[in-house]
Design a protein that fits this description.
This protein is an alpha+beta fold. The chain has two domains: 5-89 and 175-198, no CATH class; 96-165, no CATH class. It is 49% helix and 18% strand. The strands form three sheets. It has a four-stranded antiparallel β-sheet with strand order 3-4-5-6. The longest helix has 27 residues, at 190-216. The protein is elongated and about 75 Å long. Bound molecules: zinc ion (ZN).
């Protein structure tokens, strides 16, 4: 797992020019440096998100501050999501078979690469692209069928089987409203959270480099070599606190 400042900044630069779906791939490569891109893209989404959770815990700790509006009264809820409390999920269980009437579908979990294909799909096609990614094989009676031929009821069963096969792909918790007591489900998008934090960290660090370089004539490498505490102290001494 990457933790050197130059490596993290290089990842941040790559992520800046990428869209949201590609950013998750960049973050994943920071979590698993040296892993070939095709191996990363072939990983089930839940496994990828598990790697992102581990990277986030290592870089920024266990508590993720989150906000959500109460689904009942609209009250703004603030809470901290404890990443350490996410249960160590069982291994995803590979393929599942769904049957309904004369339909039989072999369902597989979507991978990180599938999500890229979904994000790149033309408007209105994303659902079908995701469905096709989850369908390893479909038959009606003895006849092979494609994902776009599945009736709505079978599509629903496929989506359920997909979610059940890889529970780690969905990190959700129920927040009780302090005003009305209603429990609102809040989902954690670990890729988006981690990107926002990395972006914030990188911009703040570069500002520190700018201020310290201007004051002391230090190079980027000089500033990176300082611990965060010593960096803050020099900034204070230079009147930049
Ligand atoms: Zn409420």
């Amino acid at each position: 797992m990457v933790s050197s400042v130059p490596d993290l900044l290089a990842g941040w630069e790559l992520g800046l020019s990428a869209d949201e779906s590609r950013r998750a791939v960049v973050l994943h490569s920071l979590a698993r440096p040296g892993e070939p891109a095709d191996r990363l893209l072939a990983m089930p989404v839940g496994e990828r998100d598990g790697d992102l959770v581990a990277l986030r815990r290592r870089l920024f700790g266990d508590a993720v501050p989150l906000r959500a509006a109460c689904g009942e009264c609209g009250e703004e809820l603030e809470f901290a999501f404890d990443l350490a409390a996410i249960p160590a999920a069982a291994e995803p269980d590979g393929e599942r078979r769904v049957t309904s009437g004369d339909w039989t579908v072999l369902v597989r979990q979507p991978t990180a690469g599938d999500l890229l294909a979904v994000a790149a799909a033309p408007p209105g096609r994303a659902r079908l692209v995701l469905l096709a990614a989850c369908v390893a094989e479909a038959t009606r009676g003895q006849q092979p069928a494609s994902a776009d031929q599945l009736p709505p009821e079978v599509c629903r069963l496929v989506a359920e089987a997909c979610a059940a096969a890889d529970p780690r792909a969905d990190i959700t918790l129920a927040i009780a409203c302090a005003v009305c007591g209603h429990k609102t489900a809040a989902a954690l998008d670990i890729g988006a959270v981690l990107w926002a934090e990395l972006d914030n960290w990188a911009r703040s660090l570069l500002l520190d480099v700018h201020l310290l370089a201007r004051t002391y004539g230090w190079t980027e490498a000089d500033v990176f070599a300082l611990s965060p505490l010593r960096r803050r102290y020099y900034l204070e001494l230079a009147g930049h606190d």
